[in-house]
Amino acid sequence: xxxxxxxxxxxxxxxxxxxxxxxxxxTDIIQGLYAFCHCVIASTKRLLTDGDExxxxxxxxxxxxxxxxxxxxxxxxxxDIMLHISHELAIPAGTAxxxxxxxxxxxxxxxYEIVDSEFPGYVYLVSSYLLTECIDDDKxxxxxxxxxxxxxxxxxxxxxxxxxxxxxxxESFAFxxxxxxxxxxxxxxxxxxxxxxxxWPTQAADWPTxxxxxxxxxxxxxxxxxxxxxxxxxxxxxxxxxxxxxxTHQYRLSFSRAEIILLxxxxxxxQIVYHMLRxxxxxxxxxxxxxx
Length: 292
Fold this sequence. Notes:
The chain is α+β, with helices and mostly antiparallel strands. The protein is about 25% helix and about 30% strand. The chain has one domain (about 1-290). The chain contains six helices and 15 strands. Strands 3, 5, 6, 7, 8, 9, 10, 11, 13, 14 and 15 form an eleven-stranded mixed sheet that branches. Strands 1-2 form a two-stranded antiparallel ribbon. Helix 4 (about 220-225) runs antiparallel to helix 5 (about 255-265).
């Protein structure tokens, strides 16, 4: 028992001492991801009906954004990139359309209401308004439009993983000595096309005020999460994927932005434990679950 305790203390000290902080190791990776993002965006720009160009706005999510610790063996595999379109916006059903929008949005924006489905967290998008920016005061004027359910296209040649389109590149990144990734140095990106919902969704209305036994997250973190709203991604519930209509009309609420804020509020030791559990799942547990 004494020897086990000594080994445990040695391993714990090693892990704590070798985890870097502040994303010092991920700078090149993040820069490469953004460059990669813009290459993809350049190939996916499209024209509106009046000839104006619309753009995809990227945000890096997943482990790269969530973890500020830099362990010697990184658990980061695929790099998740969410892309929302500058002329589309989602709002909770029954709410008034916004009169002001962030600068990243187009001067004409199609607004869709989020309507519940029979499965919690899964929704439909219904066209509701067309917003047009007024040059005089930078505010948007809303006009009601024909209500219809929004469908999305499933391209047969894409490799799909949930709501993500998997994109591979041969580009690799150099790591500091002794630092490695579980998935190696080859860059694999999961592109998730989404629609922004700037307000906090009514489907999660109780989350900001629910009882928390240990005071986490604190009020400032909760406010940060709520102020970022959520996203809506193109994926149907697993029980609906055989239905031809629902498989192309059903969406899921995504709280990836909230997860980044929550995980970044953890102490380094908490992130280290989370990282170790992820490595265990990606290596040992996954191997044990494979059929022999």
